[in-house]
Amino acid sequence: MRSPLFLSSSFLLLTLYFSALRVAVSLAPKGEWTFVQNGTTGITGLEVILVSPTLILMFDRVLGDPLQIDGHQAWVELWNLETNTGFPLNAITDTFCASGALLSNGTMVSVGGQASELPPGVTVPPDADGRMGIRIFEPCADPAGLNCTLFEDPATLHLAANRWYTSAIRIFDGSLMIIGGTHEETPFYNTDPENSFEFFPPKDNGQTRFSPFLARTVPTNLFPRGFSLPDGKVFIVANNQSILYDIEAQTETILPTIPNGVHVTNPMDGTATLLPLSPPEFIPEVLVCGGSNFSDATPSEDLSSQDPASDQCTRITLTPEGIEKGWIIERMPEGRMMPEMVLLPNGQVLITNGAGTGYAAVASVGDPIGNSNADHPVLTPVFYDPDASLGSRFNREGLPTTDIARMYHSGVTLTPSGAIFLAGSNPNSGVVENATFNTEFRVQFLNPPFLSRSRPTVSRIPEKIAFNEPFTVDIDIPNDLNTDNLKVALMDMGFSTHAFHASSRLVFMEAQLTGNKKSLTIRAPPNNRVYPPGPAYIFVTVDDVTSTGTRVMVGSGAAPPVQDQGVPLPLASSAA
Ligand SMILES: [Cu+2]
């Protein structure tokens, strides 16, 4: 029979065991995130994409930004993360409300834009119509970007259709799928839609593909939110509807409608992300947050900048069972119009930016604030933990509040340091300085707590990684971190514009530490559908402390179209 002494000593042992566990976990302090303002842009950072480990490319419009090039106003700016200064690049066509993405060879392609209405006194090259615009930024070796240029030849290189407010995503063959766009007749709803897809480099002999889905989702279907899924299909959500699109079979499969009449695309911008994909099955889940549950049959002048934004998030698992269950509803701590979601290397999602009331677009509701259709900027970000249980996924642990509104025409991206870059915000038709919501030039970083402590360092990462192949890197892990909790993320930072982070992606990779914890063997994603071939950053997170991100090329690094060398996962045949 056990004595009370035995019981109490085993209890003591158990307590010690759990204390030790607790110590091992808590040694890595969660800590405080901080907003730090550093530098100012010369254009509004309304489109933001990381194009090298040290360079961010931003696009705006021909509207009188202060940055100058060749004796006229610039609307493209390259930002050096090492000096926190920017300088202009020359473009021919107007990149206002365009999209873009990186191709499989690392080339950045910007697509679409507007037909400029040039303000008096602004001198630019004569053909500034960017609606069919294609602009090419080749990777350039200089970390400071001094010899980098943007290539454009509108007469010979252009889209098949006019596309303003279009989206572009990289797909399994490393090319871009370009989705929908244009709202030329009204400044708010899409009354002149381009209900089609096209590709770059072109498929279908350069013809567009009609999309019944885009036709069904007017007038609230600008900047459709599309994601390349691990079976090669594309998920798209626009307005309050969603589909799976099979690029190869050219078929659309209708998925459940977003509940409660919530509209999630421009001009009623919610945002959406593909949640991190994990081995071995890489089951895709999509999270959609914010937007508006006011009717999109209401004329814009009868809508108000004070209409509360939706606090609804909905999540769907894109398997037959998940689709059968439909969208699962969750609630953010507050409503958000024009939020953005940033995937973090530890698998969390940061929801930032946006407004508590109103809409996107410029000066079109009955009571705009200056030119802003939105009001009550939401100044505190929030985390979404995809792995927590339903009802406890949102938290604000350690997150600060900013005093800079980031609403319409703002951009945000994760950087290789692990800090988040934030720029822009401009609801005005030009540069305005004395409004409630000014044209915003201040750059901010949201710095994670691990920036100020010793972090895991990873070295000897190969420049290129081949699908499904293992590779080994050196790693140095600070002693106070619990290596039982180690994650390796392969990330595309995406292209940020209009509350959407197109092509943003996080694929976790299987990883094995050696006995001495000095090297790490990692297995690359199984194929080009799980991670569309192209540039990526590898981050290693140990005990919630993340290394800096190292750029790699996933796949051959060849220009698209590449031969589809991937083996579709079983999911391919099981999609609804
Ligand atoms: Cu816009």
TrEMBL record:
Nucleotide-binding among keywords: no
Keywords: Signal
Keyword Manganese attached: no
Signal peptide location: 1-26
Boundaries of every Glyoxal oxidase N-terminal domain copy: 78-450
Record domain Galactose oxidase-like Early set: where: 455-554
Name of the protein this chain belongs to: Glyoxal oxidase
Pfam annotation, one family: Glyoxal_oxid_N
Taxonomic classification: Eukaryota, Fungi, Dikarya, Basidiomycota, Agaricomycotina
Organism: Lentinula lateritia
Segments of this protein annotated with the region Disordered: 557-576
